[in-house]
Design a protein that fits this description.
heterodimer, A: mainly alpha, Four Helix Bundle (Hemerythrin (Met), subunit A), 6 helices, about 75% helix, B: about 90% helix, about 0% strand, rod-shaped, ATPase_proteolipid_csu (chain A), transmembrane helix (chain A), F/V-ATP_Csub_sf (chain A), ATPase_proteolipid_c-like_dom (chain A), V-type proton ATPase proteolipid subunit (chain A)
Chain lengths: ~190, ~100
C-alpha cells in the first residue's frame, strides 16, 4: 500500500468543502434566528436596529473563519515567491497566480499528494466547520432572545455583547486547531 | 407644529440617516477585507508563511466587527442627543404658545 494513493485528494478536498459548508450552515442559522428577533424589535423601537444587528455581523465573521480555512487548505504556497517590480498589472496577475499555484501541502494534481496530508486536511476542515456550526447556533439563539429583551431593558446590551463574544470565540478555537493541523501536513513524504 | 410631530420627525430622521448605506459598506468590508489581507500579507508581509497571513485575516475580520460595535454605540449616543434637543424644542414651543 503506497503512501500517496490516487484517492488521497478526496480527503483533502473534503476538508476544504466541509470547512466552508458547515461554518456557513452555522452562520446561516445565526443570521436567521437573530433576524427574527430584530424583526420583532423593529416594530417597537426602530432606532435600536443598528445596535441589534451585532449578532448578524458576528455570524458573518463565523462564515469568514470557514472561508479562511478553506482558502488556506486549498492554496498554500512555497516561500520562494519573490516580489518583482511593483506594477499594477503584475500585481493583479500575481494575485491571480497565488490563488491557482500549488504547494506541496496543498492539493495539486501534478504532484503526489500523501494520504497523511489528506487526512490532516480533512481533520482541519472538519474542526473549523463543526465549531463554526456550534458558534453560529449559539449566536443565533443568544442574539434572538437578547435582542427581544433589549426592547424592554437597555442594560441588556452589554451582557449581549459579552455572551456573543464568548460564543464567537468557539469558532475561533476551531480555526486555531485547523491552523495548527495544517502545519503538520507538510511533514508527510511520498516514499 | 404640534409636539408629537416634532418628536416623530426627529426619530424618523434619526434612524433613516444612511442605515442602508452603512450596512452595505460593512457587508462589503467584511467580505473583502479578510480575504484581501490574507493574500496581500501572504505575498508581501510574511513571505509565504500561511499561518501568519491567516492570523492577519482573522485580526482584520475582528477589527471590522469592533468598528461596527463602536459605530453603532456612537450613533446611539448621537440619537440620544438629538432626542434631548427635540425635547427641549418641544418645551420651548409649548412655552411660547
Amino acid at each position: 500500500m503506497s503512501l500517496c494513493p490516487p484517492y488521497a485528494p478526496f480527503f483533502g478536498f473534503a476538508g476544504v468543502a466541509s470547512s466552508m459548508i458547515f461554518s456557513t450552515v452555522g452562520a446561516a442559522y445565526g443570521t436567521s434566528k437573530a433576524g427574527i428577533g430584530i424583526a420583532g424589535l423593529g416594530q417597537f423601537k426602530p432606532e435600536l436596529i443598528m445596535k441589534s444587528l451585532i449578532p448578524v455581523v458576528m455570524s458573518g465573521i463565523i462564515a469568514v473563519y470557514g472561508l479562511v480555512v478553506s482558502v488556506l487548505i486549498a492554496g498554500g504556497r512555497k516561500s520562494h515567491l519573490t516580489v518583482r517590480a511593483s506594477m499594477r498589472l503584475r500585481l493583479l496577475r500575481s494575485l491571480f497566480n497565488t490563488i491557482n499555484s500549488a504547494h506541496f501541502s496543498s492539493v495539486d494534481p501534478s504532484q503526489d499528494y500523501p494520504l497523511f496530508a489528506g487526512f490532516v486536511h480533512l481533520g482541519a476542515g472538519l474542526a473549523c466547520g463543526f465549531t463554526g456550526l456550534a458558534a453560529g447556533y449559539a449566536i443565533g439563539i443568544v442574539g434572538d432572545s437578547c435582542v427581544r429583551a433589549y426592547v424592554h431593558e437597555s442594560r441588556v446590551f452589554v451582557a449581549m455583547v459579552l455572551i456573543l463574544i464568548f460564543a464567537e470565540v468557539l469558532g475561533l478555537y476551531g480555526l486555531i486547531v485547523a491552523l495548527i493541523m495544517n502545519t503538520k501536513a507538510t511533514e508527510a513524504k511520498c516514499s | 407644529m404640534s409636539a408629537q410631530t416634532v418628536v416623530a420627525k426627529a426619530t424618523d430622521q434619526a434612524y433613516q440617516g444612511g442605515v442602508l448605506i452603512k450596512l452595505i459598506i460593512f457587508s462589503l468590508t467584511l467580505g473583502i477585507l479578510p480575504l484581501g489581507s490574507y493574500f496581500l500579507s501572504d505575498k508581501y508581509l510574511w513571505n509565504g508563511n500561511s499561518i501568519y497571513s491567516a492570523i492577519t485575516a482573522i485580526v482584520a475580520a475582528n477589527l471590522v466587527l469592533v468598528s461596527y460595535i463602536v459605530l453603532s454605540l456612537m450613533e446611539d449616543r448621537q440619537d440620544q442627543k438629538d432626542m434631548a434637543a427635540t425635547a427641549n424644542a418641544v418645551q420651548e414651543s409649548k412655552k411660547s404658545r
